[in-house]
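Hey, resending since the last one bounced:
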Amino acid sequence: MKTAAIILATLGLAVAGSAIAADHLTAVDYIKAARCKGLAEGLGATANTSSLDALVKSEGAIQPTPIYTRAQDEMQRAKRDASHDDAKDRLTAELNGPCMAFMSGGKVTASAR
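The C-alpha cells again:
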C-alpha cells in the first residue's frame, strides 16, 4: 500500500511538472524564436516584432545558460545571414512563414506544430 502511494505521488508530480513546462517554449523553439528575432533585425522588419521581442526576453530569463548562449549565437548568425543580398529572399520567406508563429504573440510548442 505504501509503495502504491509513492508511485501515485510520483506520477502526480510528473503530470504537474509537464503541465507547468507546457507554459514555456522548448529549448529548440526558444532558439528558433531567437533566430526569427535576428532575421527581423537583420532584414529591418522590426515594425511589428514587439510580441517576438517580449517572448525572447521572457523565455530567455528561464532558459539554462547553454541554451541561452546558443540562442544568442543563432540570433547573431541570423543577423549576419540577413546582410547577404543573395539570401534575402529565402530569409524573408522564413521570416514571413515559420517565424510568424512566434510573432503572433502565442507560444509555439512541439505539440502545436
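The chain has a mean pLDDT of 81.

Sorry for the duplicate.
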